[in-house]
Amino acid sequence: MKFFDIVKISQKNLLRAKLRTVLTVGAVFIGALTLSLTNGLGNGVKAYVNDQLGNVGAEGTLIVRVKQSQQNPVSTDVSEYNPDRQVGTFNISLLDETDLEKIAQIEGVLEVIPDNLPQLDYITAGDKKFEVAAYQNIEGLNLTMTAGDTVNEDVPNGITVPNKYVAPLGYNSAEAMLGTTATLGYKDANGKTKNYEVTIVGIQEQSLLGNSNIVVSQTLAEKIVKDQTDGVASLSGKYVDSTIKYDPNLSKEELDDLKQRFNDAGYGAQTVQDQIGIISTVIDTILIILNVFGLIALLAAGFGIVNTQLMSVNERTSEIGLMKALGASRKQIFLMFSIEAASIGFWGASLGAAVGIVIGTIVSDFASKDFLKDFVGFRLVAFPPLPTLAVILGIMFLAFLAGALPSLKASRLDPIKALRYE
Amino acid sequence: MKTLIEAKNLSKVYPSGGEDTVALKDINVAITQGESVAIIGKSGSGKSTLMHILATLDRPTDGELMFAGRHAHNLTPAQVDHVRNKRFGFVFQQFFLNARNTVLENVTLPLVIAGVPAAERNRKGLAMLENVGLLDKAKKRAGELSGGQKQRLCIARALITKPLVIFADEPTGNLDTENGAIVTELLFKLHKQHNITLVIVTHDPDLAKLCDRSILVKDGRIVEAA
Ligand SMILES: Nc1ncnc2c1ncn2[C@@H]1O[C@H](COP(=O)(O)OP(=O)(O)OP(=O)(O)O)[C@@H](O)[C@H]1O
Ligand SMILES: [Mg+2]
User: Fold this and answer.
1) Which residue's alpha carbon is nearest to atom 28 within ligand 1?
2) Nearest C-alpha of chain A: how many angstroms from B181?
3) Looking at this predicted complex, what is its ipTM?
4) Cα(A1)–Cα(A8) distance, rounded to whole angstroms?
5) Does B75 touch chain A if contact means CB atoms closer than 8 Å?
6) Which end of chain B is more exposed for a tag (fewer CB within 10 A), N or C?
7) Closest-CA residue to A27 (of A293, A301, A303)
8) Based on the structure, what is the number of domains in chain A?
9) CATH number of B3-225: 2.40.70.10, 1.20.1250.20, 3.60.140.10, 3.40.50.300?
10) What is d(CA A230, CA A211) in angstroms, rounded to the nearest whole number?
């Protein structure tokens, strides 16, 4: 038998018992739809998270903190007071100048950039003042920009602002805002309000992982923080964390060694990827749980296929007997029923994927216009073609496995028994 | 004349609970290429069983079957399939047609199994249907045919691979006299034209008389060969 003829006969046989086929395909469809939607959601979220990684961390940087005595903020343990350690808000041990010097000595550290966190009160470009928070610029930070460029240390009073500030500050477009001046307001250590004139050199695109704060140069951040902490012993020269630079060409093992050296010296060092990794793990876990539901549905569908195919073999006993009497081989009969089973998988999976893509696209479009409208470029549900194809093939294989027992039964039928069967 | 099929000391026993059913015992037959043989006997005497064993559809409990000088039990499954598909044609008592498929699809089934391309299949199928007077029914569903037409369709299906032997189990059993005569005429026409060997199981003495010889089976034994 030609393969094409076997496929044709299989499809015809499926159409013969329409209701039964529809019900069995329906069961596969539900499982495939679930898998398709959960995978689509996972792909959408993860693609976005990966895309945004560059927006929160520059290449070749580690974020270093004092190794915390209390790793878990809700731990029931109480640590003994250590007079050499300054503890900040939320019980976080802070880095001081000695620490920074120690860190600079660690092998592999190219540069230490303590994280100055200026406490800004407002930004204004006219009458109205708006609340604002600032990050310090890290060279190599790969922010997505709507207009202009990222902050350059050669222009100390240049800042970038998220595009949500464009309209409030009185501009029609991001381009119109480029190159204009604005005023930052903050309180110094004595509580006196100070103003600082800055130039807007770039407008940032909004994103999921931070990026909603303005970015100021290291020089400016340092200056403001100095103003705010001068003379306050508990704050002056103290940092929650520090960015360090290392050779971005380090291999994974060399990077692990570097982290280990920090660990040995009493510091915790993480790449942004490490920090994002926690988010990814959470997303993965949720997706795995959802996928398990899809797989359970498919398992049930698999039993449906076994049942359907056994019925089909019983109904067609004399037909199988005739075909064997006319010279059909075991292999051909097995193939005929296997293709039938795999086809049930194929139709169910393809329909499931197709409907999943339609639903996913509608939901994505709605979400992008509604509760996710601030996250430019975020597709809630994404369907990369290869994984979608892999799911369809996987379900076809599952259906084939489910059909294997009935197909084997059919292929082993003795032609005489089958022909005498009434 | 060449011996095509030869059975030596064949027996067939159906084990059934306490007492075994002996369907065939000490059967010796030789069927020569091109002859027509009738297998006759009472109901339950073992005619169908004998025909099935001669046609490699069933296996004997004991004894030997030779096909074209070769031991049948030495043939590989693929060779058995080949013999069934290319060398033998079957006409069964209960038709065994696919009622939902068209007449053309039914007649070409052996060619589908053989892997013949569709165009060639349909050409041969239509030619064969013309042979048995069913050309105008080619696109009809097999289920819509009358009994006589169905049996003619079965004969067409048995002939389409140009076999050496046609095994027919009660080919006229389900037909009225008129249709029985048509089918009989058809079988013997092909037998004479193409030198096809006929092995016909029948109750009908008139049909048996048309054959070169008859084998009378009684209680699983051959009691008379004429
Ligand atoms: N699968 C089976 N299991 C047990 N006994 C069987 C089986 N098939 C046939 N028999 C027995 O073998 C004997 C011969 O059966 P067979 O079908 O060959 O008879 P037959 O001569 O063709 O009869 P009929 O003219 O009614 O078709 C019968 O007694 C039948 O009951
Ligand atoms: Mg019989």
Assistant:
1) B44
2) 26
3) 0.92
4) 11
5) no
6) N
7) A301
8) 3
9) 3.40.50.300
10) 28
Distance CA B101, CA B136 (A): 16
Q: How large is the greatest C-alpha to C-alpha distance in chain B, in angstroms?
A: 55
CA–CA gap between residue A336 and residue A290 (Å, rounded)? 34
Cα(B43) to centroid(ligand 2), Å = 7
Are A398 and A262 within one domain?
no
Q: Is B44 in the pocket of ligand 1 (CB under 6 A)?
A: yes
My answer on whether A172 and A213 are in the same domain is: yes
List per-residue pLDDT tens for chain A, 422 residues long: 888 999 988 998 888 888 999 999 999 999 999 888 888 888 787 777 776 665 556 678 888 888 776 555 566 667 777 777 766 666 677 888 888 888 888 888 888 888 888 888 999 888 889 998 888 888 777 777 888 888 888 888 899 998 888 888 889 988 898 889 999 999 888 888 999 999 999 998 876 555 678 889 989 998 998 888 887 777 778 888 888 888 888 888 888 898 889 888 888 888 877 777 777 788 788 888 888 888 898 899 999 999 999 999 999 998 999 999 999 999 999 999 999 999 999 999 999 999 998 998 888 888 777 776 666 666 677 777 888 898 899 999 999 999 999 999 999 998 888 777 65
What is the position in ligand 1's atom list of the atom closest to the CA of B51?
A: 18
Is residue B45 lining ligand 1, measured as CB closer than 6 Å?
A: yes
Residues of A in contact with B115 (CB under 8 A): 1-2, 5
CA angle A189, A194, A198 (to 5 degrees): 125
Using CB atoms within 10 Å of the CB of residue A220, give its burial: 0 to 12 exposed, 13 to 18 middle, 19+ buried: buried
Contact A1 B98 (CB under 8 A): no
Rounded Cα distance between A178 and A147, Å, is 7
Question: Is A325 in CB contact (< 8 Å) with chain B?
Answer: yes
Tell me: do A338 and A409 sit in the same domain.
Answer: yes
Q: What is the CA radius of gyration of chain B?
A: 17
- Sequence-ordered list of residues with C-beta below 8 angstroms from that of B132, at least 6 positions apart, any chain: B152, B153, B155, B156, B186
Identity of the residue in B57, B85, B98 whose CB atom sits nearest the CB atom of A415: B57
A28 and A46 in one domain?
yes
- Please give, rounded to a whole number of angstroms, the shortest distance from the CA of A327 to a CA of chain B: 4
**d(C-alpha A405, C-alpha A168), whole Å:** 69
* CA–CA min distance B139, chain A (Å): 16
Domain that holds residue A370: 3-53+278-420
Task: Determine the residue among A11, A14, A326 to mutate to test chain B binding: the one whose Cβ has the most chain B Cβ atoms within 10 Å.
Answer: A326
Q: Do residue A325 and residue B77 have CB atoms under 8 angstroms apart? A: no
